[in-house]
Amino acid sequence: MTTNILLAGFGGQGILFAGKAIAKMAMDSELQVSWLPSYGPEMRGGAANCSVIVSDEEIGSPLVVTPDLLIALNLPSFEKFEPNVKAGGKLVYDSSLIDKTSSRSDIEVYGIPATAMASDAGLTGMANVIVLGYLLKITGLFEYDAFLEHMVAGIPAAKAALIEKNKKALEMGYNYAK
Amino acid sequence: MAKKVLMKGNEAIAEAAIKSGCLHFFGYPITPQTEISEYMAKRMPKVGGLCLQAESEVSAINMIMGAAASGSRCLTSSSSPGISLKSEGISYLVGCDLPCVIVNVQRGGPGLGGIQPSQQDYYQATKANGHGDEHILVLAPSSVQEMAQLTSEAFDLADIYRMPAMILADGALGQMMEPVDFELGTKREIPEKTWACNGTEGKRKKNIINSLLIDPDELETSVVNRFKRYDEIAEKEVKYEEYKCDDADIVIVAYGITSRICKTAIAAARAKGIKVGLFRPITLWPYPKKQLGALADKAKHFLVCELNMGQMVDDVKVATECKKPVSFFGRTGGVIPSPDEVLAQIEKLAAAL
Amino acid sequence: MVVFDKPKSLSPVPFHYCPGCTHGIVHRLVAEVLDELDLCGKAVGIAPVGCSVFAYNYFECDMIEAAHGRAPAVATGVKRTHPDNIVFTYQGDGDLAAIGTAETVHVGARGENITIIFINNCIYGMTGGQMAPTTMPGQVTTTSPYGRDRRIQGSPIRVCEMLSTLDGVAYAERVAVNTVPNIKKAKAAIKKAFQNQVDKKGLSIVEVLSTCPTNWGMTPEQALEWVKTDMIPFYPLGVYKDADVKDLNPTSTKEVTE
Question: Which of A40, A151, B167, B316 has the smallest number of Cβ neighbours within 10 A?
Fold first, then answer.
């Protein structure tokens, strides 16, 4: 079983971080994983995206072109990548930043106003973690508790203050009801 | 088994170098390999080593020349345009029989080109690093694990054969993260560097490290002797991977990141009943000529896939002695083909078999 | 009793230099200093590309032959990985001040604790008398056949003056080897440049005004005279910098911690 994940948005939205959290969890779950970021000038304030592939067999091409799971956190990425989602795949997007929905009937579409939720809860900048929580709920990719534990373990001691905030954000996403 | 670490390919090279006893790094920033310099700058002071940012790639490769000549294990890294600047130094290192490891995380060219992954420096790496009759060892990893593994092996090979070894990677392998296990296997026996220039202490005759041989006969002898060593390396040190080649009608020949894209395409083609396999050279110099040649009696068609305009095609034709047709598919300039594009090529060839 | 002998740091082989060329004098001065400071066993010399390309045959210490202009980078590689070695480069004007300018400036900027012996004879010797970065205004060479015209070929580089502006340069002195008193001063300067390295003071460079009778089209005597009448007025002798990089205030603020 192979899951091709594409995360896309603006630089600064924590796209690469979210991808890394998934990749790290996959590695520690004894799965094969690859994480490939976009890089170069396009990262400087522009678009950022990363391909994450999680599999129980050897991973071939690390570049995700037709994702099983697309996480779109801004309108340009939504418009660029939504048509590429595999039939039967899932699309998760930030409905507080993307004022439209998918017209495709062959994929499952999940909107979550992650940025608005984050700012309402005093968690500005943590919409990515809210989306991760939501992702766990709708995909069942990893166990919630195990993922939380891993994410917290990855936060360096110097940033311990962030632990509670991350916990809260992940929980908000997981418990979000459409 | 040691715990795996999730790391970028560039970082894996740097850490593997340190774990291989390389405590001296000289470099100059260039995308997409700068993480190697950054990792070294952070780690080296902690392990009692040195990371020095030179004023240019030209200077960095000559610092390598000094470090290698005085007997130190040392590493430099760059990307395509920077490797061109290093070519003078590489030729001198070969002429002086000095060991070192050089990393090329390739990007698109020619000129300033782009910064996306490419394999456009195949000719340069395997045939013309610098002026003169010369070769260097060229190893082409295809995963982050191999970035570490082959870096470790490159240091040993360089020391054993007294010549530079290159890790020929690309922007995708440099930037991507995968789990790495740093248990990199047993080290080989390294001959003592009795030739090193690090002071006679009055106990031995002076050593001279030099590539100038004014007398043509003397220079010829030195080059011919070096080529005898090359023959020995070609005999003993080729590395390659065969993947589903046993029953393959079509054999794809690809290295590095491209080989992985091909593996995905091969799985899809096999699902459609097409018998296709992959031959992956891991050493690009020495090239696994005999091993690839052996497949020419079984396979019906060869398909070379690269991120360039077909630089490896001639090597495949030579290795297979043109016994079977050799086709080419590639994208260049930093474009990475999708597995579907490779699959389309496979299907086209299969239909014509 | 031996009153005059070959320095032990000089190899027992004949030089290939032209009659009247002062490379031989400077080689001998370097070797005498290595003997007197007992440094030969620790020394690693870097030879250039130019007339002194064969310097690796002439000194009894370990020697590396560098690519054209790259000797300071090679020296950096040796010194940084083997700080206990005494590392020196021996370079001409084309090597140091044309093709190797970046290496020269940055070895100074970094304050590498090495010694540079710089031979300035205003011309490319090995290739047969072409214009050098130090060729004087009006000087005729095979590539400035009508005399160096500053409007066309630009002006010469005064290396000691230029390098003395760099914080990492500990010592820069220009000497000449055209007279016996000047040769004595040159030796003192070379000795100081090596002693500075022993004392870890930073980069030391001694620029030696030298002759090239063959390519200048002069007799050896005329060449020595031309150093006095033409070169020294344009390239004044003396100490341009005498400092210690250890006195520089480091600005590294972060401790290296595991």
Answer: A40
